[in-house]
Amino acid sequence: MITKEQFDKEIEIIISNAIREDVGDGDHSSIACIPDGVRGKAKLLVKDKGVIAGVAFAKKVFNYVDKSLKIDILIEDGSEVSYGDIVLYVEGSPKSILMAERTVLNAMQRMSAIATKTRMFVDLLKGTRTKILDTRKTTPGIRALEKWAVKIGGGENHRFALYDMIMLKDNHIDFAGGITKAIIMAKQYLKDTDRDLNIMVEARDLTEVKEILQSDGIYRILLDNFDYEDTKKAVKLIGNKCLTESSGNINEETIRHYAESGVNYISCGALTHSVYNMDLSLKAIK
Protein backbone atom coordinates (compact mmCIF):
# COMPACT_ATOMS: atom_id res chain seq x y z
CA MET A 1 0.00 0.00 0.00
CA ILE A 2 1.11 3.59 -0.48
CA THR A 3 2.72 5.46 2.40
CA LYS A 4 1.13 8.34 4.27
CA GLU A 5 3.62 10.68 2.61
CA GLN A 6 2.60 9.46 -0.85
CA PHE A 7 -1.08 9.80 0.01
CA ASP A 8 -0.66 13.31 1.40
CA LYS A 9 1.19 14.30 -1.77
CA GLU A 10 -1.70 12.99 -3.88
CA ILE A 11 -4.13 15.14 -1.88
CA GLU A 12 -1.94 18.21 -2.35
CA ILE A 13 -1.87 17.61 -6.10
CA ILE A 14 -5.66 17.21 -6.23
CA ILE A 15 -6.24 20.48 -4.38
CA SER A 16 -3.77 22.54 -6.37
CA ASN A 17 -5.05 21.18 -9.67
CA ALA A 18 -8.71 21.70 -8.72
CA ILE A 19 -8.12 25.33 -7.72
CA ARG A 20 -6.04 25.93 -10.86
CA GLU A 21 -8.80 24.47 -13.01
CA ASP A 22 -11.60 26.41 -11.31
CA VAL A 23 -10.02 29.78 -10.58
CA GLY A 24 -7.64 30.37 -13.48
CA ASP A 25 -6.52 34.02 -13.42
CA GLY A 26 -9.13 34.98 -10.85
CA ASP A 27 -12.69 34.67 -9.55
CA HIS A 28 -13.85 37.76 -11.40
CA SER A 29 -17.44 37.48 -10.11
CA SER A 30 -16.25 37.89 -6.54
CA ILE A 31 -13.54 40.41 -7.37
CA ALA A 32 -16.09 42.56 -9.19
CA CYS A 33 -18.68 42.89 -6.44
CA ILE A 34 -17.14 42.06 -3.04
CA PRO A 35 -15.03 44.89 -1.52
CA ASP A 36 -11.63 44.16 -0.02
CA GLY A 37 -11.51 43.87 3.76
CA VAL A 38 -15.06 42.55 4.14
CA ARG A 39 -15.56 39.53 6.40
CA GLY A 40 -18.26 36.93 5.98
CA LYS A 41 -19.46 33.58 7.26
CA ALA A 42 -20.99 30.57 5.54
CA LYS A 43 -22.37 27.20 6.57
CA LEU A 44 -22.06 23.85 4.84
CA LEU A 45 -25.60 22.51 4.76
CA VAL A 46 -26.76 18.91 4.26
CA LYS A 47 -29.78 18.50 1.97
CA ASP A 48 -29.75 14.70 1.88
CA LYS A 49 -29.23 11.65 4.06
CA GLY A 50 -26.19 9.38 4.43
CA VAL A 51 -22.61 9.30 5.68
CA ILE A 52 -20.68 12.56 5.49
CA ALA A 53 -17.16 12.41 4.07
CA GLY A 54 -14.60 14.98 3.00
CA VAL A 55 -14.72 17.24 6.06
CA ALA A 56 -10.98 16.93 6.65
CA PHE A 57 -10.41 17.47 2.93
CA ALA A 58 -12.58 20.62 2.98
CA LYS A 59 -10.45 22.02 5.78
CA LYS A 60 -7.33 21.42 3.67
CA VAL A 61 -8.91 23.23 0.71
CA PHE A 62 -9.93 26.26 2.78
CA ASN A 63 -6.44 26.41 4.30
CA TYR A 64 -4.86 26.11 0.85
CA VAL A 65 -6.90 29.04 -0.46
CA ASP A 66 -6.53 31.23 2.62
CA LYS A 67 -4.82 30.19 5.87
CA SER A 68 -6.63 32.97 7.75
CA LEU A 69 -10.05 31.37 7.22
CA LYS A 70 -11.58 30.09 10.46
CA ILE A 71 -13.25 26.66 10.15
CA ASP A 72 -15.57 25.41 12.88
CA ILE A 73 -16.35 21.71 12.32
CA LEU A 74 -19.60 20.48 13.87
CA ILE A 75 -19.84 17.02 12.28
CA GLU A 76 -16.83 14.79 11.65
CA ASP A 77 -16.11 12.44 8.76
CA GLY A 78 -17.96 9.13 8.98
CA SER A 79 -20.98 10.50 10.84
CA GLU A 80 -24.56 9.82 9.79
CA VAL A 81 -26.24 13.01 8.58
CA SER A 82 -29.71 14.03 7.47
CA TYR A 83 -31.46 16.96 5.84
CA GLY A 84 -30.85 20.25 7.62
CA ASP A 85 -27.65 19.26 9.42
CA ILE A 86 -24.85 21.83 9.41
CA VAL A 87 -21.45 20.20 8.93
CA LEU A 88 -19.23 23.23 9.41
CA TYR A 89 -18.97 26.98 9.47
CA VAL A 90 -16.26 28.90 7.64
CA GLU A 91 -15.50 32.54 8.41
CA GLY A 92 -13.21 35.12 6.86
CA SER A 93 -12.79 36.73 3.47
CA PRO A 94 -15.88 36.05 1.32
CA LYS A 95 -13.65 36.05 -1.75
CA SER A 96 -11.60 33.21 -0.28
CA ILE A 97 -14.69 31.29 0.82
CA LEU A 98 -16.19 31.48 -2.67
CA MET A 99 -12.89 30.58 -4.31
CA ALA A 100 -12.84 27.31 -2.33
CA GLU A 101 -16.58 26.64 -2.50
CA ARG A 102 -16.88 24.52 -5.65
CA THR A 103 -13.82 22.36 -4.95
CA VAL A 104 -15.11 21.68 -1.43
CA LEU A 105 -18.62 20.83 -2.58
CA ASN A 106 -17.62 18.73 -5.58
CA ALA A 107 -15.30 16.64 -3.42
CA MET A 108 -17.59 16.29 -0.41
CA GLN A 109 -20.66 15.42 -2.47
CA ARG A 110 -18.86 12.57 -4.21
CA MET A 111 -16.93 11.40 -1.17
CA SER A 112 -20.12 11.33 0.92
CA ALA A 113 -21.89 9.27 -1.73
CA ILE A 114 -19.04 6.75 -1.77
CA ALA A 115 -18.88 6.59 2.03
CA THR A 116 -22.65 6.09 2.19
CA LYS A 117 -22.59 3.22 -0.30
CA THR A 118 -19.59 1.65 1.42
CA ARG A 119 -21.34 1.81 4.81
CA MET A 120 -24.33 0.01 3.29
CA PHE A 121 -22.10 -2.85 2.10
CA VAL A 122 -20.24 -2.96 5.42
CA ASP A 123 -23.57 -3.32 7.23
CA LEU A 124 -24.58 -6.16 4.88
CA LEU A 125 -21.39 -8.02 5.86
CA LYS A 126 -21.92 -7.79 9.63
CA GLY A 127 -21.50 -11.14 11.35
CA THR A 128 -19.15 -12.49 8.69
CA ARG A 129 -15.37 -12.37 8.54
CA THR A 130 -15.40 -10.76 5.10
CA LYS A 131 -14.12 -7.22 4.44
CA ILE A 132 -15.24 -4.97 1.57
CA LEU A 133 -12.56 -3.58 -0.75
CA ASP A 134 -12.55 -0.85 -3.37
CA THR A 135 -10.84 -1.21 -6.79
CA ARG A 136 -8.91 0.95 -9.28
CA LYS A 137 -12.21 1.78 -11.01
CA THR A 138 -11.96 5.38 -9.86
CA THR A 139 -12.34 8.82 -11.43
CA PRO A 140 -9.04 9.81 -13.10
CA GLY A 141 -7.21 12.41 -11.04
CA ILE A 142 -9.09 11.99 -7.76
CA ARG A 143 -8.42 8.37 -6.81
CA ALA A 144 -7.01 9.39 -3.44
CA LEU A 145 -10.27 11.14 -2.54
CA GLU A 146 -12.42 8.20 -3.56
CA LYS A 147 -10.33 5.66 -1.71
CA TRP A 148 -10.27 7.96 1.31
CA ALA A 149 -14.07 8.00 1.20
CA VAL A 150 -14.19 4.18 1.18
CA LYS A 151 -12.13 4.14 4.38
CA ILE A 152 -14.41 6.73 5.96
CA GLY A 153 -17.39 4.51 5.10
CA GLY A 154 -15.79 1.58 6.93
CA GLY A 155 -14.35 -0.29 3.95
CA GLU A 156 -10.75 -1.15 3.17
CA ASN A 157 -8.51 -0.09 0.33
CA HIS A 158 -7.23 -2.52 -2.28
CA ARG A 159 -3.93 -1.61 -3.93
CA PHE A 160 -3.77 2.09 -4.65
CA ALA A 161 -2.29 1.82 -8.12
CA LEU A 162 -0.17 -0.34 -10.41
CA TYR A 163 2.99 0.25 -8.39
CA ASP A 164 2.12 -1.05 -4.92
CA MET A 165 1.21 -4.69 -5.62
CA ILE A 166 1.89 -7.41 -8.20
CA MET A 167 -1.57 -8.38 -9.40
CA LEU A 168 -1.56 -11.03 -12.12
CA LYS A 169 -4.93 -10.84 -13.85
CA ASP A 170 -6.26 -12.73 -16.86
CA ASN A 171 -4.52 -10.53 -19.44
CA HIS A 172 -1.15 -10.74 -17.67
CA ILE A 173 -1.51 -14.51 -17.48
CA ASP A 174 -2.49 -14.87 -21.13
CA PHE A 175 0.26 -12.56 -22.39
CA ALA A 176 2.84 -14.33 -20.20
CA GLY A 177 1.87 -17.78 -21.49
CA GLY A 178 0.12 -19.18 -18.43
CA ILE A 179 -0.32 -18.85 -14.68
CA THR A 180 2.83 -20.63 -13.54
CA LYS A 181 5.03 -18.76 -16.03
CA ALA A 182 3.56 -15.44 -14.91
CA ILE A 183 4.19 -16.25 -11.25
CA ILE A 184 7.77 -17.38 -11.87
CA MET A 185 8.54 -14.22 -13.85
CA ALA A 186 6.91 -12.00 -11.23
CA LYS A 187 8.99 -13.54 -8.45
CA GLN A 188 12.17 -13.18 -10.49
CA TYR A 189 11.34 -9.56 -11.25
CA LEU A 190 10.89 -8.77 -7.55
CA LYS A 191 14.21 -10.46 -6.77
CA ASP A 192 16.07 -8.70 -9.58
CA THR A 193 14.71 -5.27 -8.64
CA ASP A 194 14.88 -5.80 -4.86
CA ARG A 195 11.21 -4.92 -4.42
CA ASP A 196 9.00 -6.09 -1.58
CA LEU A 197 5.52 -6.36 -3.10
CA ASN A 198 2.74 -8.85 -2.44
CA ILE A 199 1.75 -11.14 -5.32
CA MET A 200 -1.93 -11.63 -6.04
CA VAL A 201 -3.22 -13.93 -8.79
CA GLU A 202 -6.60 -14.07 -10.48
CA ALA A 203 -8.32 -17.41 -11.05
CA ARG A 204 -11.09 -17.91 -13.57
CA ASP A 205 -12.07 -21.40 -12.45
CA LEU A 206 -11.20 -24.16 -9.97
CA THR A 207 -8.56 -25.64 -12.26
CA GLU A 208 -6.67 -22.35 -12.19
CA VAL A 209 -7.01 -22.20 -8.39
CA LYS A 210 -5.30 -25.59 -8.17
CA GLU A 211 -2.49 -24.42 -10.45
CA ILE A 212 -1.92 -21.25 -8.44
CA LEU A 213 -1.67 -23.30 -5.25
CA GLN A 214 1.30 -25.19 -6.70
CA SER A 215 3.36 -22.00 -6.28
CA ASP A 216 4.51 -20.74 -2.88
CA GLY A 217 4.47 -17.14 -1.74
CA ILE A 218 1.10 -16.07 -3.14
CA TYR A 219 -0.49 -13.42 -0.96
CA ARG A 220 -4.07 -13.62 -2.24
CA ILE A 221 -6.11 -15.45 -4.88
CA LEU A 222 -8.80 -13.49 -6.67
CA LEU A 223 -11.85 -15.61 -7.48
CA ASP A 224 -13.25 -13.74 -10.45
CA ASN A 225 -16.88 -14.31 -11.46
CA PHE A 226 -17.19 -17.56 -9.50
CA ASP A 227 -20.67 -18.67 -8.50
CA TYR A 228 -21.47 -19.42 -4.85
CA GLU A 229 -20.79 -23.15 -5.01
CA ASP A 230 -17.44 -22.80 -6.77
CA THR A 231 -16.48 -20.05 -4.34
CA LYS A 232 -17.09 -22.42 -1.43
CA LYS A 233 -15.05 -25.13 -3.15
CA ALA A 234 -12.21 -22.71 -3.86
CA VAL A 235 -12.12 -21.46 -0.26
CA LYS A 236 -11.91 -25.06 0.96
CA LEU A 237 -9.12 -25.86 -1.51
CA ILE A 238 -7.12 -22.79 -0.53
CA GLY A 239 -7.55 -23.19 3.22
CA ASN A 240 -4.92 -21.18 5.08
CA LYS A 241 -2.38 -21.18 2.25
CA CYS A 242 -3.26 -17.60 1.29
CA LEU A 243 -6.05 -15.04 1.47
CA THR A 244 -9.09 -15.11 -0.79
CA GLU A 245 -11.04 -12.43 -2.60
CA SER A 246 -14.25 -12.52 -4.63
CA SER A 247 -15.05 -10.08 -7.41
CA GLY A 248 -17.24 -9.71 -10.47
CA ASN A 249 -20.75 -8.27 -10.64
CA ILE A 250 -21.25 -8.40 -6.88
CA ASN A 251 -24.05 -6.17 -5.58
CA GLU A 252 -26.18 -5.63 -2.49
CA GLU A 253 -28.31 -8.65 -3.33
CA THR A 254 -25.43 -11.10 -3.76
CA ILE A 255 -22.70 -9.83 -1.44
CA ARG A 256 -23.92 -11.65 1.66
CA HIS A 257 -23.97 -15.00 -0.18
CA TYR A 258 -20.34 -14.55 -1.23
CA ALA A 259 -19.33 -13.56 2.29
CA GLU A 260 -21.00 -16.67 3.68
CA SER A 261 -18.94 -18.71 1.22
CA GLY A 262 -15.97 -17.89 3.45
CA VAL A 263 -13.85 -15.44 1.44
CA ASN A 264 -11.65 -12.96 3.27
CA TYR A 265 -12.41 -10.04 0.96
CA ILE A 266 -14.94 -8.90 -1.59
CA SER A 267 -13.91 -6.19 -4.04
CA CYS A 268 -16.57 -4.01 -5.59
CA GLY A 269 -15.96 -1.39 -8.26
CA ALA A 270 -19.46 -0.02 -7.76
CA LEU A 271 -18.32 1.62 -4.52
CA THR A 272 -16.60 4.29 -6.60
CA HIS A 273 -17.93 4.09 -10.15
CA SER A 274 -21.69 3.93 -9.51
CA VAL A 275 -22.79 6.48 -6.92
CA TYR A 276 -25.10 9.50 -6.84
CA ASN A 277 -23.64 12.59 -5.21
CA MET A 278 -24.99 13.65 -1.85
CA ASP A 279 -26.78 17.01 -2.00
CA LEU A 280 -24.77 19.60 -0.07
CA SER A 281 -24.56 23.37 -0.32
CA LEU A 282 -22.50 26.21 1.08
CA LYS A 283 -24.72 29.13 2.12
CA ALA A 284 -23.71 32.61 3.21
CA ILE A 285 -24.99 33.66 6.63
CA LYS A 286 -26.37 37.19 6.48
TrEMBL record:
Residues 114-283 form the Quinolinate phosphoribosyl transferase C-terminal domain. GO terms for molecular function: nicotinate-nucleotide diphosphorylase (carboxylating) activity. Its EC number is 2.4.2.19. It holds the Pfam family QRPTase_C. It comes from the Bacteria. Residues 28-112 form the Quinolinate phosphoribosyl transferase N-terminal domain. It is an enzyme of class 2 (transferase). Pathway: Cofactor biosynthesis; NAD(+) biosynthesis; nicotinate D-ribonucleotide from quinolinate: step 1/1. Belongs to the NadC/ModD family. Involved in the catabolism of quinolinic acid (QA). This is nicotinate-nucleotide diphosphorylase (carboxylating). It comes from Gaetbulibacter aquiaggeris.
